[in-house]
């Protein structure tokens, strides 16, 4: 029988790829639009929206794992002082969740700031800077050495 932990870990694992692909596409298109002084299009808006939705789902599933299901965070909270001295527990208990929330906030901020201006180049610039920074955090704080797809 599948546990809730394995099901949500699988969802978190597979949603990561939506975030990575959508983030690369949205940030890349924004950078291309900014550097090429392109018009802001419906496609630019949709790519950003898909990226944001993916990030929202990913972080929500991650928080569910973090607060209720993960044995790593349970171990972290049992002795927080010792967990801070343990690289793996510190990563899962503090660094990963904190930096992914920061990435989510950056992605939302970039989208919100781009909506406040009418100039296409400035829309692309704001989106590119915030989305690329969010994606940098995602790439740095994703545990790439673990299985790339967790099957339940």
Q: Could you describe the 3D structure shown?
A:
The protein is mostly helical and 152 residues long. It has one domain (4-141). The protein contains 6 helices and no strands. α2 crosses α3 (71-78). The radius of gyration is 17 Å and the shape is elongated. 32% of the residues are buried.
Report the mean per-residue pLDDT as an integer.
94
Number of domains: 1
Low-confidence stretches: none
Question: Mind telling me the C-alpha Rg?
Answer: 17 Å
The computed structural class is: mainly alpha
Q: How would you sum up the global shape?
A: elongated
Count of alpha/pi helices: 6
Largest sheet: none
Helix content: over 70%
What's the multimeric state? single chain
E-strand count: 0
* Euclidean distance between termini CA atoms: 10 Å
| SSE string, helices as H and strands as E | HHHHHH
Kindly estimate the percentage of residues that lie in beta strands according to DSSP: under 5%
């Amino acid at each position: 029988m599948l546990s809730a932990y394995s099901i949500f870990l699988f969802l978190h694992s597979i949603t990561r790829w939506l975030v990575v692909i959508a983030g690369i596409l949205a940030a890349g298109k924004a950078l291309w639009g900014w550097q090429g002084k392109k018009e802001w299009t419906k496609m630019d808006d949709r790519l950003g929206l898909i990226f944001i939705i993916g990030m929202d789902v990913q972080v929500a599933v991650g928080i569910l794992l973090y607060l209720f299901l993960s044995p790593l965070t349970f171990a972290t909270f049992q002795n927080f002082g010792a967990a801070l001295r343990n690289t793996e527990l510190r990563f899962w208990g503090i660094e990963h969740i904190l930096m992914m929330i920061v990435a989510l906030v950056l992605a939302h901020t970039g989208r919100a700031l781009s909506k406040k201006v009418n100039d296409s180049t400035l829309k692309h610039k704001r989106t590119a800077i915030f989305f690329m920074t969010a994606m940098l955090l995602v790439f740095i704080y994703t545990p790439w050495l673990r299985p790339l797809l967790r099957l339940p």
